[in-house]
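A favour, since you know our structure tokens better than I do. Would you make up a two-line entry for one protein for me to read? Write everything out right here, beneath this request.
=====
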Amino acid sequence: MSASSFADVAYDEAVQRTRDLVPVLRERAERSAKERIVLPETLDAFHRSGVLRALQPKRYGGMELDFTSVFDIGFEMGRGCASTSWTLVNLMIHHWMLALYDDKAQEDIWGDNPDAGIASGVIPSQGQATPVDGGYEVSGYWNFSSGVHVSDWNMLATTVRDGDKVVDLRLVLLHKSQYEVIDDWQVIGMEATGSMSVKAEKVFVPEHRALSMYQLGGGDVAPGTKVNTSPLYKVALSMLSGHVIGSAIAGNAQGALEMTIDSIKQRSAVTTGAKLRDIQAVQMRIGKAGAKIDAGVNIIRHDMLEGQDIARAGGVPDQERKLRSKRNVSFGAGLFREAVDEVFTLAGANAIYHRYPIQRMFRDTYAGSSHILFSPDINYSTWGLLALGGVVNNPTL
């Protein structure tokens, strides 16, 4: 085990440690975007704080906090830099996901390095896993592997077939020596996530490093829950995966509001000399932005709290509750986007300059909220179909 253990760090302390890093995240955000990665000194600071291990089991020196900690920590990170938050909450949730794997897989990774970064590629159709003696032969090409540049491992989704029939979807763990990183991350937003593509060809993965995605629906069905018995590891990720990364765009919206308020306090209108803060239209936009952010945060955190409560009671959310949660996170993401639109308008012509952070925050908002987990077309209509008496077939729920 690593010399560093954070098993005695409480929830509020973990959030405060993150909050303390917000000023330096803001200072580094533009440089990080240009480099297209989370900067090494930033990653080091978060490792030293221990917050990346907020959801890791205590037996490996993690904090093993409530599931909502990933949102609250991600929100604070997002106030400083959306890309950094997006990347690091991915690392955090992958610690939690590793705790669901067979105990041997946990030891393979955390036994050598409890701080190990784990990236992911979560679209099963992009990978194929062929059953072989003792495990699977894996090939694929996965894009959007956030944090791959700071990770030693990757958690890659694959499809398992029997002939033409899909029989399973497996998240396989590959060491960085087993895949190639394709530097194709040339994008207009969320630049510092370094979400490059990865390619693997005929790699052997032992059975214990392959977790069925059908076991992410909550309860004690995943093999890791036999050794990690806390209700934390019985939360239904299938209900809340969008809520995890939603923390980054929520925090980004809050950061944009805070920076806009600070700017307006110091500015006067060019044409009239009036203080901007005294203009009612400006006050209205600030008020609407703040309300939209609070509403989005509250609806997302409510879902996460409910998911925790269900797990603590020994239950598993039903299909309607899971789909309602997905509907809600799409609505929340839309509110964060609208809030940033409000404050971007207040920046006026200055918003077009690269030296003004609001243009990057605007781009990050639209890039982040375009993730399929926030798709209103999918999430509104799917819940609507069920509510209207239709049948939703999704085995990964």
Remarks:
- The CA atoms of residues 55 and 96 lie 5 Å apart.
- The longest helix spans residues 280-312.
- The chain has a mean pLDDT of 96.
- The chain has three domains: 11-116, 118-212, 235-387.
